[in-house]
């Protein structure tokens, strides 16, 4: 019995050691690759067809691609969409409803600080419960470290957390220096596992010259060159093959012109309201008692003048814009290529291109490409939702997503088959367990067999001896009774 017990303990210890080492190997195998997200501001989904873009072409061939880009969120403005990308929430849920907005609780208007980042905005504007990816990364991963270069909103403290490294918005910094800094953050001791990189072009050029201008075409080429520079720097540091990289943007673009202006002063008296953000979505804050007349006047004018007016309660569900305290009592939304102006002449209107329109317009949609060890190669889909990016990032970093509006339904098509790899690991563990169990059983059976045989052998030797010596001894051995008792039987 002791031998069997020792054998069982030995098998269990062996099984434990093998499984422990296997789990450790599996954990190492499945530790997530670092992730870099790059946003080229205002890069429309169809810009890739405009000029030679060998680096983007390389990603399409060796990575994944949304042929018609992303369906972004309304309003299709910069801050709103950058915040939806990293939180997976619609504007009515995260509260950054436009680049400027009024918060009745804070009793202030939010204005991005642009060139004055030494000033600190009220933390209540961003810390609304929405959880950006760097917060998820740093709160959940023991070694989760994040780096942000100029990513909109990353300068704010959210859930008592800021990115481990953050370079604030500064248009005077060379793009190559920005990339060098990001690569350094990934490669230094205690390096980051998540990077977010923002470039302000081709947005600025499209506002100034229009999205169809040669200037924008040149900027698309420069974005591609910058991507090539990034590849070379990552490759020199042995990072390119091991990193997942997402290339996307916040919105597309539409032309603007002095011919397509809507003069709000023609329809409503400027003394009746204040306006927070006025084109192409005007947030109207009526003065007391003026809401009804403003709405009626704008409603009557909207029929033939290329805009739509909504009371807050009537904003369509599909815009996911209504249910937030920051949504103003009335919004007016210009048709694409149209813009509102107040208190100015057409000559003062300087924009050649704009964005912010209803996200139903495809021209408002940004591009999407990605590549890396977790992505399949050469996979294309038609389009998907911008809010799906956050759960995708969480999947890539193996994080539990915070509550969000996104889904993995489409983006999981991009990913290497995790089910198979999980199954492979599980099958490996199961196979090992079966081998150990069978081996253990065989060992126990062998020992038992040996013990039984040993006992049988003892009987056999005695029997042989009995045959030689006497029947009495044989009978005694068969009955397993001591010799003394046999003698006492008188046989
Ligand atoms: Zn933008």
TrEMBL record:
Pfam families: Phosphodiest
Gene3D superfamilies: 3.30.1360.180, Alkaline Phosphatase, subunit A
Coiled-coil region list: none
Keywords: Membrane, Signal, Transmembrane, Transmembrane helix
Signal peptide: 1-27
GO molecular function: hydrolase activity
SUPFAM superfamilies according to UniProt: Alkaline phosphatase-like
Transmembrane feature ranges: 422-448
Protein name stated in the entry: Ectonucleotide pyrophosphatase/phosphodiesterase family member 5
Organism: Candidula unifasciata
């Amino acid at each position: 019995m002791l031998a069997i017990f020792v054998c069982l303990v030995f098998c269990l210890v062996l099984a434990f050691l093998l499984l422990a080492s296997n789990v450790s190997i599996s954990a190492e195998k499945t530790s997530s690759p670092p992730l870099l997200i790059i946003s080229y501001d205002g890069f429309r989904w169809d810009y890739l067809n405009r000029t030679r873009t060998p680096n983007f072409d390389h990603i399409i061939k060796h990575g994944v691609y949304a042929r018609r880009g992303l369906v972004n969120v309304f309003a299709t403005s910069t801050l709103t969409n950058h915040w939806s990308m990293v939180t997976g929430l619609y504007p009515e849920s995260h509260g950054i409803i436009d680049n400027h907005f009024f918060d009745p609780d804070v009793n202030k208007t939010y204005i991005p600080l642009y060139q004055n980042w030494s000033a600190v905005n009220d933390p209540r504007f961003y810390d609304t419960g929405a959880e950006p990816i760097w917060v998820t990364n740093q709160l959940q991963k023991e070694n989760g470290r994040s780096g942000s270069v100029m990513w909109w909103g990353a300068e704010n403290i959210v859930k008592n957390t800021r990115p481990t490294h953050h370079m604030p918005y500064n248009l005077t910094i060379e793009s190559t220096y920005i990339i060098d800094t990001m690569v350094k953050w990934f490669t230094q001791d205690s390096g980051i596992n998540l990077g977010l990189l923002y470039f302000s072009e081709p947005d600025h050029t499209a506002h100034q010259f229009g999205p169809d201008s040669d200037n924008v075409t040149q900027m698309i080429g420069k974005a591609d060159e910058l991507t090539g520079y990034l590849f070379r720097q990552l490759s020199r540091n042995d990072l390119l093959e091991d990193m997942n990289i997402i290339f996307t943007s916040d919105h597309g673009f539409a032309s603007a012109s002095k011919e397509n202006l809507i003069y709000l002063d023609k329809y409503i008296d400027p003394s009746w309201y204040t306006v927070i953000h006025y084109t192409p979505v005007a947030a109207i804050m009526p003065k007391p008692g003026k809401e009804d007349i403003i709405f009626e006047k704008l409603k009557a004018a909207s029929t033939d003048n290329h805009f739509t007016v909504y009371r807050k309660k009537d904003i369509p569900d599909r815009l996911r814009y209504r249910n937030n305290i920051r949504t103003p009592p009335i919004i007016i939304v210009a048709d694409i290529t149209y813009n509102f102006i107040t208190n100015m002449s057409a000559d003062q209107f300087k924009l050649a291109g704009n964005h912010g329109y209803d996200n139903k317009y495809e021209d408002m949609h940004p591009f999407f490409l990605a590549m890396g060890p977790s992505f399949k190669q050469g996979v294309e889909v038609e389009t998907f939702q911008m809010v799906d990016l956050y759960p995708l990032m969480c999947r890539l970093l193996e994080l539990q997503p915070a509550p969000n509006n996104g889904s993995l339904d489409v983006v999981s098509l991009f990913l290497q088959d995790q089910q198979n790899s999980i199954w492979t690991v599980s099958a490996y563990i199961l196979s090992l367990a079966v081998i150990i169990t069978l081996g253990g059983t065989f060992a126990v059976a062998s020992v038992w067999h040996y013990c039984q045989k040993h006992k049988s052998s003892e009987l056999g030797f005695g029997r042989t001896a009995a045959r030689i010596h006497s029947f009495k001894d044989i009978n005694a051995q068969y009955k397993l009774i001591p010799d003394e008792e046999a003698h006492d039987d008188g046989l």
